[in-house]
Specification:
Blueprint: H1 2-21, E1 63-68, E2 71-74, E3 83-89, E4 95-100, E5 106-111, E6 114-120, E7 131-135, E8 139-145, E9 159-162, E10 165-169, E11 175-180, E12 186-192, E13 195-202, E14 206-211, E15 216-221, E16 226-231
Antiparallel strand pairs: 1-8, 2-7, 3-6, 3-8, 4-5, 4-7, 9-16, 10-15, 11-14, 11-16, 12-13, 12-15
Amino acid sequence: MRRAIGRLAAVCAVVAFAASCSLQPSGIGAIVRPLPEEPSHVPAPVLPPPELDEPRFVDAPTEAHQGKGNATVPLNWPSGVAGFLKFDCPKCDGHIAVKTDGTESLLVNASDPYHGTAWFNVSLGGKWVHKLDITADAAWTATITDYRGLPSVEAGKPHSAHGDAVLAIPAGMTRGKFTTNSRGHTGVWTLCDGRLDLVVNQLIPYDGEFPLHGQAFVAVEAYDGDWTFTAS
């Protein structure tokens, strides 16, 4: 009897030792070496390059809106076509703003009576404009034209104006000269062959030149200043 109990104790000891050496759950899963990927005989698809959203300077019908005070104005202007907003509020006596849902988000930021022009849909890869949000305290008119509605500068002939404006520059001009005595902020942008450049950014009177090439457009941001531009 004692021998049977001894043999049973020995068997239990062997079983316990084997159980202690077996794999126990760790809570992090088993570690498996990655297998080498099998070569694929299916060629990868060739995707076309992404298309760039380029603004177009094409003919489009003039669009006009009238209102009084604050308003949201949905536009019928075609997507991707460069537009030029002429905004008039001759009896405004406070803050004036015209915002859009596009890349050029703030077209007008002025005060008191206002008359000026700003561009939109001119940024490469930009978000197109589909509405205007207008802040004003009097009657206003918003007129949108294509490039044909802009004043065209003649070579060597000074163009004098007041406030915000956009000018069309015929091909063949290589230099632009800009002069202002305004002590407010003055900014001048050029758009040449699809490239936008800020060529003047001043808080003091300015008299200088900058390069032009190809058919160009010049945008002046100086709602309260007089200025003169000459192309040559």
